[in-house]
Design brief:
Strand content: 25-35%
Distance between the termini: 20 Å
Order of helices and strands: EEEEEEHEEE
Number of strands: 9
Shape: globular
Oligomer: single chain
Helix content: under 10%
Largest sheet: 4 strands, antiparallel
Strand order of the largest sheet: 1-9-4-7
Number of domains: 1
């Protein structure tokens, strides 16, 4: 379907595997240098660095390969999740349902009880991005 089509695909990394943690939050970067706030600037996807070339958020995750993952769950935050209260999806569920439509903030591998653990193996999770930033989030 054209509404769920992507123009850019990126490999996603879990938040706890990198320092600083990798997130995919839309972040406004001001280009104004006059000492006061204006709307001059641009959006980047990621609070620390731009992920991919397109400046739109990740709107879909594709769990392409989770076979080597030893963690039992993946905790996934949408862009409006502001605290630690985010759902944990069983890896088996995501393997059987490999597409999740979400404006992505970040994700971590867990033990199902909320404790962050390493993935335990290589994985491939693909993020889908559109050509432009949506009008309303």
């Amino acid at each position: 379907m054209i509404l769920s089509s992507a123009v850019e695909l990126i490999n996603l990394a879990d938040f706890s595997s990198t320092t600083p943690g990798t997130d995919y939050l839309p972040t406004f970067i001001t280009t104004q240098k006059a000492g006061f706030s204006t709307s001059m600037g641009f959006w980047q996807i990621g609070s620390e660095e731009q992920h991919g070339f397109d400046h739109s958020p990740v709107f879909k995750m594709i769990f392409a390969d989770l076979t080597a993952v030893v963690a039992s769950h993946i905790k996934i935050w949408g862009i409006d999740n502001q605290d630690d209260d985010a759902p944990e999806f069983p890896v088996a569920f995501l393997t059987n349902n490999p597409e999740l439509e979400i404006y992505l903030n970040k994700f971590e591998f867990t033990d199902g009880g909320g404790n962050v653990i390493p993935a335990g193996g290589a994985y491939t999770i693909v993020g889908c991005k559109k050509r432009q930033y949506p009008i309303v989030l």
